[in-house]
Every structure is written in C-alpha cells, then in structure tokens.
Design goal:
The protein has 227 residues and is an alpha+beta fold. Helix content is 53%, strand content 10%. It has a four-stranded mixed β-sheet with strand order 2-1-3-4, with helices on both faces. The mean pLDDT is 92.
C-alpha cells in the first residue's frame, strides 16, 4: 500500500583528507539512521587540499608545517571524542593532493550510478578511504591504497582502474568542481538543501542538522524568492 512518505534529496560535500568530515561522519550516520527511507544523498567532492606542497610552503599551513597539521589533526579528533587518531600521515607520507583520493571516490560513485557496483558503494568507499587515512595512517593518494580499500569492499577492481585510467573519474571530479563554484561551496563538510537555498557548513551541532532535515521533510521550504 502506498505510504505517501515525504522525501528529501540533498547534496553532501566533503574533502577526503578533511578531519572535520571524518569526525562529522557520525552526524550523517545518525541522520540516515533516523530518516533514511525519506532521504536521498548525492555525494560530492570539494577538494580543499588541492596542493599540499603549496599549503605547506606558501599557503595557510606554511607557518605550522606538517607537524602543525599533525598536531591539529590529533587535537581535533581527541576533542571530538575520537581516540587513536594521530595524524602522523601528515609527517610520514603526506598525500600531495586530495584530488587523487577524490578521483577514486568519484570512480566508485560513477560505477554505482551505472549499476556496476551495489547501491551505497560510493558512500561506503568514501568512508572507508577516509578511515584508512585517519585511522591506519595510509596515504590514500596512492593507487595501491585506493585499490586495497576497494578490494576490502569487494568492488570490481578492473572497472575501478579503468575509470581512473581513462579520465572518467577525473571528468566527474571536474564536474563537482564546476558545480562547487556555481553553488559557492566554501569547504568541508557542507550540506546543501532545497537547490542551494539552505546549507550547513562546518562544525555545527547535530541538533541543527536534524532540525533542518525534519523541517524540510515537513514541507516547510527554505527561504529565498525568485525576485
């Protein structure tokens, strides 16, 4: 029998190397556990860490350097209740760019869209790849690490490599970057609702996320007009 259950589609933007996205995963998990059947999530990559060599030499992390980034990662994780995250990959084997793991994630998401991977594979792979970086201190920009994670999830490795090698994944990542510019996405993580009229960005309280989704599910539209 039809239930007329209200549904809500939204975009979730994050960087594969973002510690705030790692600690915020529990908020997204609880949201999906609470309202899962009523929600459709479209995952996007916002590559905040496009060039780590530049960040450490001339960008915002130049003064603190890799050790400062390691310390900040450990502190943020500890303050948010995540023990055992040391951030040591930033000093032992730092990825040169989050575009590399971002490409791998987009490859799996595109496989899922083409029904070459089970539903939900993209989200699971993104989460597992981020955990590999923060919990196991492995450089997820490396192809071997990306394939190891894919193997652990029983994904089709040949299809994944094909999409990485023929430019399909890179094209999908570029499309995210183009869409990010259009929507003026500022950073990671970001939730985008109601065609961009409502958004949540950064380390906000979980109650704000739950209330926003519940309000939109009840049919109360976000602000904004066509004038």
């Amino acid at each position: 029998m039809p239930t007329n259950r209200p549904t809500l589609a939204f975009e979730y933007w994050s960087d594969p190397l973002c510690i705030w996205a790692y600690v915020a995963q529990v908020k997204l998990d609880r949201l999906l556990n609470t309202h899962g059947p009523s929600l459709t999530v479209r995952y996007h990559i916002v590559p905040v860490f496009g060039s780590m060599p530049w960040r450490f030499s001339a960008g915002s992390w130049a003064a603190a350097g890799p050790e400062g980034r390691r310390e900040a990662t450990e502190r943020i994780a500890r303050d948010q209740g995540f023990k055992g995250v040391t951030g040591e990959t930033w000093t032992s084997d730092a990825p040169a760019s989050s575009w590399a793991p971002g490409m791998a994630i987009k490859a799996v998401l595109s496989m899922e869209d083409d029904e070459q991977a089970p539903a939900g594979s993209g989200a699971l792979y993104q989460r597992a790849l981020r955990a590999e970086f923060f919990e196991k201190n492995r450089n997820t920009a490396r192809r071997k690490v990306q394939l190891d994670v894919a193997t652990s999830l029983n994904l089709n490795i040949a299809l994944l490599e094909q999409r990485l090698d023929d430019g399909t994944a890179l094209a999908a990542l570029w499309e995210d970057e183009h869409h990010r510019t259009e929507q003026r996405i500022q950073g990671s993580p970001t939730y985008l609702f109601d065609g961009g009229r409502a958004r949540l960005y950064g380390n906000f309280d979980e109650s704000v996320l739950q209330a926003t989704v519940l309000t939109l599910l009840q049919g109360i539209k976000a602000g904004g007009s066509a004038c």
